[in-house]
Amino acid sequence: xxxxxxxxxxxxxxxxxxxxxxxxxxxxxxxxxxxxxxxxxxxxxxxxxxxxxxxxxxxxxxxxxxxxxxxxxxxxxxxxxxxxxxxxxxxxxxxxxxxxxxxxxxxxxxx
Length: 111
Fold this sequence. Notes:
The chain is an alpha/beta fold. It contains three helices and five strands; from the N terminus they run βαββαβαβ.
């Protein structure tokens, strides 16, 4: 298992939690858009409460690169929905060949 985290502080916190729980997760200090992970090496990629931070087009390109054939992307971004909806939404698996970048609306700056 590998965690990708651009923040050294958050990565250190995660490692402390792993030590307490006895979990063994490797971490790389990178961004989702350029993980540096090997091609076609993962069965699953997950994004938990972080998808809204990503450059989605670049991230999806990277995810397609690192997923094995038949692999899945699982996105759970639950900040603004009810718990019941989160459960329903997280039970949907997206096959790698169906991944397409989300169309992003431009952000308006009213200043």
